[in-house]
Design a protein that fits this description.
This protein is about 40% helix and about 20% strand. With about 400 residues, the chain is α/β, with parallel strands linked by helices. The strands form four sheets. A five-stranded mixed sheet has the order 6-5-4-7-11, sandwiched between helices. The chain has a five-stranded mixed sheet with strand order 14-13-12-15-16. It has a three-stranded antiparallel sheet with strand order 1-3-2.
Length: about 400
């Protein structure tokens, strides 16, 4: 039995009620009482407060039985909004979500500059635009979360972003100086992607790894349902795990890093050299795969073999339940998961499932939105279901 002062107990009860309203989508006061184990009077008092704050609303559910229709409670998705940003190299994605976790607006820009100050100025302009757009809601834009493709300290300062060659930057403070009244947050993109997979897809998997293969290789780690970030915040920088001593040089300064062999960027660069073509795209790879081009198929097989080496190391380190691989190219390649697992021969390497991500390019921004909502509502965990239309959009992009 939990004991403590009244304010603390009230906060816990509020958190449990909000968590269950979010999880069920629609739920009555009576069912809340049964599910949580609180008496009806306590539930009614808390619900009255949440209604007054406009965080939830009442609706009557349609049903065919005789009698009064039950009054259901649901999260008020329009009470406030969150903005998730994926700050990738020469590509910045902005996604706005309501408090129900469903994206309502997504925009992408393609800045050609690497200059830190210019990127900060761009972010300020766009964030101010979203603040203005959603200022008429009850709570307005309640927070901004930016996913960084690099190492982020636990204090949210940036240690290093390889593609931009940024070192020791405090993006949070620099943005906060221009956006003084806004809640700004900085997080590693792979951590946000892992959080998205947990919240939107693999609700029951408390020990989950997400491997991002797009611009480099990053890993997001969920242990016991919580993000694992390590002592300084750098846990998950798996792309710089050495799999080939004295191998290919990496921008981090080492040789033989995993992402030099198994990131989509490295695969595209290798194929571009073989075809003597300056810039290859994912669309080119899709065409080569459909045409069963021998050079492409052999290169992807080598890519998968190196990928499996790194995955085997990670499985032995973390013993995950679910491994989610986020890769556009592997989505296009037939039987990718089967080919990956064919390289696992050790009886020690155990896991429950390896899957390809359905969230694709949207994983980072969805995780950013979800983490902001979780913090704003002050709930221990979230469970959202993404509508099919958005999933299809993710895979088509």
């Amino acid at each position: 039995m939990v004991t403590g002062d009244g304010a603390y107990i009230k906060k816990i009860n509020r958190s449990l009620i909000l968590k269950n309203i979010v999880q069920h989508g629609l739920i009555s006061r009576a069912d809340l009482s049964k599910t949580i184990g609180l008496n009806k009077a306590t539930v009614s008092v808390q619900v009255a407060d949440l209604l007054q704050e406009e965080l939830i609303y009442e609706t009557q559910q349609e049903h065919n039985t005789v009698g009064r229709r039950p009054i259901m409670l649901s999260i008020n998705s329009k009470a406030g909004y969150v903005l998730g940003i994926d700050l990738d190299h020469h590509c910045i994605q902005f996604t706005v979500s309501g408090l129900n976790g469903q994206p309502i607006q997504s925009d992408t820009i393609y800045p050609e500059t690497n200059d830190y100050d210019e990127i900060v100025s761009l972010l300020v302009v766009h964030i101010k635009h979203y603040v203005s757009l959603y200022s008429n809601s009850h709570c307005g834009l309640v927070g901004v979360m930016i996913g960084i493709h690099g190492t982020v300290n636990n204090d949210e300062s940036i240690l290093f972003v390889p593609k931009y060659q940024w070192r020791y930057k405090n993006l949070k403070d620099d943005l906060q100086a221009e956006l003084t009244d806004l809640n700004i947050n900085i997080e590693n993109n792979a951590n946000l992607s892992a959080y998205a997979e947990k919240v939107y897809k693999y609700h029951q998997s408390d020990n989950l790894l997400t491997i991002i293969l797009t611009s480099g290789i990053g890993a997001g780690i969920m242990i016991d349902g919580k993000l694992h970030k390590g002592y300084h915040g750098y846990a998950g920088e798996m792309g710089h795990m050495i799999i080939a001593p004295d191998g290919e040089p990496c921008k981090c300064g080492n040789h033989g890093c995993w992402e030099r062999y198994s990131s989509e960027t490295s695969l595209l660069e290798d194929l571009a050299m073989k075809y003597n073509k300056k810039n290859l795209t994912i669309n080119d790879i899709e065409m080569f795969i459909k045409n069963k081009d021998d050079i492409t198929i052999q290169q992807i097989k080598q890519f998968i073999q190196h990928l499996a080496i790194g995955l085997n190391n990670i499985i032995n380190l973390y013993n995950p339940e679910t491994i989610v691989i986020n890769s556009k190219i592997l989505q296009l390649y037939p039987n990718a998961v089967e080919e990956i697992t064919s390289h696992f021969r050790s009886s020690v390497s155990t896991y429950r499932e390896i899957v390809l991500s359905d969230l694709a390019d949207n994983a980072c921004v969805l995780g950013a939105c979800a983490l902001l909502i979780q913090r704003f509502l002050e709930v221990p965990e979230l469970t959202f279901t993404l509508n099919e239309e958005h999933l299809v959009t993710s895979l088509v992009k």
